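To illustrate the input format used throughout this study, we show a single complete record. The first block contains the structure-token representation of the backbone; no residue identities are included at this stage. The design step must infer an amino acid for every position from geometry alone.
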């Protein structure tokens, strides 16, 4: 499967062409190609995603049998989620620009900064994680945890582990609600059709609120524990370099956000498509401007090729999810599923709470929040009759993101568990209250805009 990226890229380029010049024939061809991608990827997918894929296929078939659709109608619906897969395929280029510019080293420098106690380090670690996760995604958690494990060796192991479990996972989750490179945000916009510019202020407000609350708690809880001091002269000598790097990162982030919003409005294009076509040229130009063009191409090519070659889990999930959603929308079973929602239609706050609890509950059993969101996407028209599209978008983003620190079998929790040799259930336990507060804030914000 070393050359899978060639075939996958061909499919993604065809999808982009179909978005620019819509064609029923091309959509049908993309459905056939999506099916081939599913067959190629299933064998190499992890056990969890195989189970999810089989479950979506079996239930989707049951729904399909109750519809008036013909077998040939299945093919085009398999391509419905290619936009999300295409977005995932281009993200490594942005990650490569950050690596080429050595911004990942910035996190290491910040976490080795001169602070007096763990309370200050907690806030600094959360800030660093939140800032760089927007570009580095999961890599930021790995970098931060490696640095903190090394730095906190003089601290009692139990306290150090607890500190790392909290600050890295919470900081990671705070970058996801507003980052245009986050698939959970992209999928929420995809389902609801909400404009990114309309959703962004709410996501930023929620993020700032959660950041302040968690930072204050972190300073109080860990503030009495001293942190081994570093060489002050050495730290001071790096200040100018650090400030320059931080400024570059802020300019890049603000520029990217502004371009996404501007292009979406000017050309009336969907959020996911705008981000997809913008990532590569933006990353390449950024690398050239900071004089790291050669490194960008060297790092980027290998990262991108490796990433696309290993998209099996998401291909299995999104292709089978497209079939499940398409069949559900045409099935009488949709009415049965809608009945419990209709019973509480006069109490939208209950619907918001139910959505939040569904994400939390399923995440603890290994169900990826993307899969949960896909299920809710099947009844999104009904939900948007009760909630406004903006309200639904807010709750989908916050409910899915709030599961990240407590998703017992989630990727970041698993990485943390392996890094610290701790039970994933212990990580879930330490972050449960944080996730509950995050979800509650999301519910209040979503209820406010109904």
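Output of the design step:
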């Amino acid at each position: 499967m070393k050359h899978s990226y060639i075939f996958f890229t061909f499919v993604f380029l065809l999808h982009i062409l179909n978005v620019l010049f819509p064609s029923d024939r091309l959509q049908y061809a993309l459905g056939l190609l999506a099916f081939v991608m599913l067959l190629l990827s299933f064998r190499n997918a992890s056990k969890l995603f195989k189970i999810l894929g089989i479950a979506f296929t079996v239930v989707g078939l049951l729904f399909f049998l109750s519809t008036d659709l013909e077998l040939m109608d299945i093919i085009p619906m398999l391509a419905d989620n290619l936009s999300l897969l295409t977005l995932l395929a281009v993200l490594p280029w942005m990650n490569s620009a950050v690596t080429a510019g050595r911004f990942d080293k910035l996190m290491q420098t910040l976490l080795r900064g001169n602070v007096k106690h763990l309370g200050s380090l907690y806030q600094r670690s959360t800030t660093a994680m939140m800032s760089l996760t927007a570009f580095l995604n999961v890599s930021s958690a790995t970098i931060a945890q490696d640095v903190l494990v090394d730095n906190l060796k003089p601290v009692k192991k139990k306290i150090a582990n607890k500190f790392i479990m909290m600050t890295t996972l919470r900081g990671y989750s705070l970058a996801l609600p507003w980052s245009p490179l986050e698939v959970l945000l992209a999928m929420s916009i995809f389902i609801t059709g909400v404009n990114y510019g309309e959703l962004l202020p709410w996501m930023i407000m929620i993020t700032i609120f959660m950041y302040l609350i968690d930072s204050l708690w972190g300073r109080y809880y860990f503030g009495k524990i001293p942190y081994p001091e570093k060489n002050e002269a050495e730290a001071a000598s790096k200040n100018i370099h650090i400030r320059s790097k931080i400024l570059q990162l802020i300019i890049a982030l603000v520029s990217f956000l502004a371009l996404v919003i501007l292009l979406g409005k000017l050309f009336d294009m969907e959020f996911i498509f705008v981000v997809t076509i913008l990532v590569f040229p933006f990353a390449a130009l950024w690398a050239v401007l900071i004089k790291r063009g050669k490194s960008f191409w060297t790092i980027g090519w290998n990262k991108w090729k490796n990433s696309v070659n290993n998209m099996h889990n998401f291909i299995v999930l999104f292709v089978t999810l497209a079939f499940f959603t398409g069949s559900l929308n045409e099935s009488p079973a949709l009415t049965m599923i809608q009945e419990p929602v209709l019973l509480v239609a006069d109490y939208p706050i209950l619907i918001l709470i139910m959505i939040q609890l569904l994400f939390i509950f399923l995440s603890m059993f290994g169900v990826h929040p993307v899969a949960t969101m896909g299920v809710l996407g099947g009844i999104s028209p009904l939900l948007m009759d009760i909630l406004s599209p903006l309200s639904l978008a807010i709750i989908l983003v916050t409910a899915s993101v709030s599961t990240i620190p407590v998703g017992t079998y989630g990727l970041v929790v698993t990485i943390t568990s392996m890094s610290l040799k701790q039970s994933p259930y212990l990580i879930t336990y330490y972050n449960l209250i944080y996730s509950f507060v995050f979800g509650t804030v999301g519910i209040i914000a979503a209820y406010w805009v109904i």
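Structural context for interpreting the output: The CA atoms of residues 355 and 399 lie 7 Å apart. The mean pLDDT is 90.
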